[in-house]
Amino acid sequence: MGLVRAISRTSWASALVLVAAAGSACGGGADTGPYDLVIAGGRVMDPESGLDAVRSVGVRDGRIVAIAEGALSGARTIDATGLVVAPGFVDLHAHGNGYGGDRWQVQDGVTTSLELEEGAYPIAEWYQSLEGKSYVNFGASAGHIPARVAVLQGAKTLVEARTMRQEASDPPPVWSHHLATPDERQRILATIEAGLEAGGLGVGFEVNESPGASREEILELFRLAERMGVPIYAHLRLMGQDPISGSIAGAQEVLADALVTGASTHFVHLGSSGLGYAAELVGMIEAARARGLDVTTEVYPYTAASTGIETALFEGDWRGRLGIDFGDVEWPPTGERLTEQSFGRFRARGGPVIVHMMKESNVELLLARPGVMVASDAMPLIDGRGHPRGVGTFARVLGRYVRERKTLPLMDALRKMTLEPAERVRGAAPSMARKGRIAVGADADLTLFDPATVIDRATFAEPTQASAGIPYVVVGGTVVVDGGTLQADVRPGRGIRRGDP
Predict the structure, then answer these.
(1) Contact call for residues 426 and 435 (beta carbons, < 8 A)
(2) Calpha distance 445→133 (Å, rounded)
(3) Neighbour count for residue 389 (Cβ, 10 Å)
(4) Res. 98 pLDDT band, cuts 50 70 90
(5) Angle value at C-alpha 137, between 403 and 103, nearest 5 degrees
(6) Which of 41, 98, 154, 295 has its CB surrounded by the most CB atoms within 10 Å?
């Protein structure tokens, strides 16, 4: 149903152009050059068509214009012998845009990095701030928390909103725990709708960080998303192992709202949200899909989460709820594991922590399930410290889980990193029909990697180590990673907005 909804909400003309162009590549009317860039003799893997063969790819004006069995000539040729030529990776869940995260992500093969959980505010200014400054393509949802902070505390920018979010939690900030009045809820919805009109790609919420948001307030977000034809990107209200108020209850709220409104819905980071209930939650999502709901999810390949120590996640009996203790929480600036005393001190200060609370078996379970996408939940590195997922997620899947552990086949992994996330966004932005695939007419966003050596090198102790085995990354026809070296003088990334044809 998700694909049907995506096509029904996009431009049939755009879709037909791609189909016609793809057909011409196989027939006598194929483009004969010259080309700006040729990628020669690589193993081209396209999850949409199933192509897995040695081909040469011709690029002109930022688009793929030829895919040929024979040689092509161009202004520049990259010898891709022994390399996989894949669509550039599409990350649905990244918080590093504008904070330097793009330099690490592009070296991990990411060509499109989207902030769809937290979202941005104000949307127009956020896009403008990144134009001409990003290595990768970018986009954002209209976020519920930024809108709440704007309405309830008067924040005028996302930076100001984030500052307010990191205030000491005793007492908690107004935006977090306040039960909004009907008038305030309408103003919050109007703020989000304005963000969608300005190009926001969906409605994102982190309701676990805003426990004052009533169930009615969250239901209204689903109604708005359905009316505006965009997906919901949902963080569970409730997380943890409590059989009454844990992860299953949180998932039930999201699924019920999706059912009664018909809104397309995406669960973020199911590994950390699901904890011990990961198998049950993915089973619930698959059952909902089998009954016609347009519901998807994602996972990142690590056994630790990361969030602000000042957030509502750490209120009440968080140790019992999450099944962890103080020593499972890490303070990145020093690498120390916390005690009861240091936890209280750092919580009053505020800032991101690393929470070691997931199981490897759940990561493998989720990666192997159909329809579970790969997304990093990348967070900015502060003074070179933080969670490595914003640096090595995609290479880690390819190296550790495809090559070493054989958790899933290579083509399946690529589909989870490229085509499926592109299709998730396509209903809001028809331009995503040109991403996540290798076809004539598609955008020339390409990642070239060595399947025998690709691996993540970023660690919790040393996260600023770029992935290995990804020698070339092309964004919009521009080579951004060249022979394994990031090209600091190019910034080809472009904004992806709601309604883009």
Answers:
(1) no
(2) 17
(3) 29
(4) confident
(5) 65
(6) 295
